[in-house]
Design a protein that fits this description.
By secondary structure, the chain is mainly alpha-helical. The chain is about 40% helix and about 5% strand. About 5% of the residues have low confidence. Bound molecules: heme C (HEC) (4 copies).
């Protein structure tokens, strides 16, 4: 009985270690939602970026809007890709995917006067 218990603890620990180290922090915003990408994927070290920029509120980027176009102040869409809601083309008030990224990323950098705003600073050749 005790052996089984120890075995289970060891197994659980192994699973946790594999999980923790297997999860790589995101380094770029993948461009695979674009049929013919023209630029290398934009650099974006998700966790490090958000720590440096002190963005603790996930909803700043992972937003949810209701039918009236009002942004929820409690619901986050972190479990969804931007492309799940943003098509390639603009759709009414919903900006197309490329514009959505540029408005989000560049928009904040311009407002805060921090972070890259030129093409090559974000679309860095690997
Ligand atoms: C603040 C960072 C940032 C800047 C500055 C920026 N982009 Fe982007 N861009 C992105 C992100 C993020 C995406 C979404 C997918 C990706 O990583 O390519 C994107 C997507 C694109 C796409 C669609 C995907 C593709 O490769 O075809 C194009 C084209 C593009 N950008 C061109 C430009 C050009 C031209 C400039 C300069 C005028 C520019 N970008 C500046 C972050 C940036
Ligand atoms: C500055 C904008 C920004 C902030 C703030 C942000 N994220 Fe993200 N996150 C992104 C972008 C961009 C992606 C890539 C989305 C895509 O490919 O469609 C992403 C992807 C993700 C993913 C899935 C991809 C993966 O492999 O990791 C998760 C999970 C996630 N974010 C969680 C969070 C959580 C939790 C927070 C708050 C603690 C947060 N994000 C804050 C921009 C942000
Ligand atoms: C659950 C669906 C959904 C997801 C996921 C989503 N969006 Fe949106 N987004 C919307 C809707 C709907 C609007 C239009 C809101 C309105 O009616 O004005 C919008 C508007 C925007 C706008 C313009 C208004 C604003 O808030 O600045 C930008 C920029 C934007 N999204 C970027 C992004 C990015 C970047 C991601 C991924 C990190 C993302 N969105 C994920 C639904 C979504
Ligand atoms: C709400 C504001 C905000 C949003 C949204 C945002 N950034 Fe930033 N970003 C910053 C700030 C602030 C810095 C400067 C941080 C520092 O160096 O202290 C920064 C810095 C950066 C840098 C420089 C290196 C680094 O990681 O610090 C890159 C690259 C970058 N951002 C890419 C992106 C991309 C790509 C997106 C969109 C997916 C994005 N950012 C969205 C605020 C933002």
């Amino acid at each position: 009985m005790q052996r089984i218990a120890i075995g289970m603890v060891v197994l659980l620990f192994a699973v946790l270690v594999v999980y923790a180290f297997g999860q790589q922090d995101m380094q770029v915003v993948e461009n695979y939602y674009f049929p013919n990408p023209q630029r290398p994927s934009a650099v974006f070290e998700h966790d490090a970026h958000n720590e440096k920029a002190e963005l603790w509120d996930c909803m700043i980027c992972h937003h949810v809007y209701d039918e009236q176009g009002i942004k929820s102040d409690w619901e986050s869409s972190e479990d969804q890709a931007c492309a799940d809601c943003h098509g390639l083309a603009d759709q009414g008030p919903i900006p197309g995917l490329r514009r959505a990224f540029h408005e989000n990323c560049k928009g904040c950098h311009l407002t805060m006067q921090q972070g890259p705003i030129t093409c090559a600073e974000c679309h860095v050749k690997p």
